[in-house]
Design brief:
282 residues, elongated, alpha+beta
Length: 282
């Protein structure tokens, strides 16, 4: 081995050793609150593990480092549990301030019509409508942000129309789906496609650009149908709408069913078709 090659070898070794040293110092600082900094510590642990693969395996330093990595990895698992407990307590406190409750078990927690799916390894929470029926978004693993997103989603779901006006639009959409057909039952997703167009503003109708489109998706339609069911005992018009329970094969295809809540605690059913009682309209 010539001198230049030897110098290069020691240079690379020194670079790796220095990088490991800096990363260990970072972990030492983050370890002051291991649970809160779990994800940052974990990423640095992976980084160190990768770097040790480039070092001579027989040295005393590398042997000590590998022993520490194994021991600390077990301690991190305990921190993961603490992170979960802390997150759940803080999220429940935030939701209680909004008059909402929290239930379920990690990694999936439930609050009213929503499911919060937690991923501590990746450091994010996924918010779902219903029992993981419609994905609403992915957010930071922050109890305050997740609680805020739950509140905002509940406020923004649906058309925002009074129930009677929504029913009128729904019937119009249903009629366009069954016109000229023997069956008066319309596939529920076809009705959704029709009503999403009927809910657009005159601005969109005159200039149907993306910027003018008002989004109205599966979760919106589901929530509006839930509102109709809640009003069924109060208004005659609400009793005219009927939903058909989806079969097992229909629930296996997203385009053939829609989940609709039945109560505020998130219980619900999947439906395949929608119809109106035309005789009751007279």
């Amino acid at each position: 081995m010539d001198l230049d090659h030897l110098i290069n070898t020691f240079t690379e070794t020194k670079k790796t050793t220095d990088a490991i040293f800096r990363t260990l110092r970072q972990i030492s600082r983050l370890d002051e609150d291991r649970a809160a900094n779990f994800r940052q510590i974990q990423s640095r642990m992976v980084k160190i593990s990768d770097m040790t693969g480039r070092m001579e395996p027989g040295s005393r330093q590398m042997a000590s480092l590998r022993t520490w990595l194994d021991e600390y990895a077990m301690q991190l698992e305990e921190a993961r549990g603490e992170l979960g407990r802390r997150f759940g307590v803080e999220l429940e406190e935030r939701l209680q301030e909004m008059d909402r409750s929290l239930s379920g078990h990690y990694p999936e927690l439930r609050t009213s019509l929503f499911t919060v799916e937690l991923d501590f390894d990746k450091g994010h929470a996924i918010l779902w409508y219903g029992p993981k029926q419609e994905r609403l978004g992915r957010y930071r693993l922050s109890p305050q942000e997740v609680a805020g997103r739950v509140q905002k989603s509940e406020r923004n779901l649906g058309s925002g129309l009074p129930v009677e006006e929504f029913l009128a639009r729904s019937e119009e959409a249903w009629l366009s789906c069954v016109e000229g057909k023997r069956s008066r039952k319309a596939p529920i997703i076809q009705v959704l496609l029709q009503i999403s167009f009927l809910l657009q503003t005159p601005h969109f109708r005159s200039d149907p650009k993306k910027d003018h489109y008002k989004g109205y998706g599966r979760a919106d339609f589901s929530y509006d149908l839930y509102r109709v069911q809640r009003e069924a005992d109060r208004t005659r018009q609400s009793r005219r709408l009927h939903l058909a329970i989806a079969t097992r094969s229909q629930t296996e295809q997203r385009a053939r069913h829609l989940w609709v809540p039945e109560s505020a605690d998130g219980r619900g059913s999947a439906y395949s078709h929608l119809t109106f009682d035309e005789e009751a309209a007279s």
